[in-house]
Design goal:
Blueprint lengths: L6 E5 L2 E8 L4 E7 L7 E3 L5 E7 L1 E6 L2 E6 L3 E4 L5 E5 L3 E7 L7 E4 L11 H23 L2
Antiparallel strand pairs: 1-2, 2-3, 3-10, 4-11, 5-8, 5-10, 6-7, 6-9
Length: 143
């Protein structure tokens, strides 16, 4: 019998307890302090299921907002924008595919937003892309 190594990861909103990190799945307990929230995020490949052990949370799924509590569960497919906000101290079991680094942060209370998804970056990128295309068109036309 092999016992798992338990890894506790501190987060600005509380902590994660990784109790199973396997090739095909990961098991965690999320402890979220009342009044704190996780990043507004989505995953490209990761699929996850959350089960609320204790507390109540406001769960944002796409454009919908639900309050869920003890004994409730939800499965999030890749691409679904979501956010968890603890209305009271909460403990959530999360079981997911093993894509631990697959997180795209859209908004974060602690400054951890992925730069390419920040609205200002998108505007600047669009502007630079348009300028690059104008430059290439001039270059091809010999002007």
């Amino acid at each position: 019998m092999d016992f798992n190594v338990i890894n506790v990861v501190g987060k600005p909103w509380g902590r994660e307890i990784h109790f199973a990190v396997e090739d095909k799945y990961v098991g965690k307990i999320l402890e979220v302090k009342a009044g704190h929230r996780l990043s507004h995020q989505y995953h490209r490949r990761k699929k996850e299921t959350m089960y609320v052990l204790e507390g109540r949370v406001r769960l944002t799924l796409g454009d919908e907002v639900e309050v869920i509590g003890r004994g409730m569960s939800v499965t999030l497919k890749p691409g679904v924008r979501h956010r968890v906000e603890a209305l009271e101290d909460a403990r959530i079991i999360e079981v997911s595919t093993s894509h631990l680094d697959d997180v795209v942060r859209l908004e974060d209370d602690h400054g951890r937003v992925d730069r390419q998804h920040h609205p200002l970056h998108r505007r600047v990128s669009r502007h630079l892309s348009a300028a690059y295309l104008r430059f290439m068109n001039r270059l091809v036309r010999g002007r």
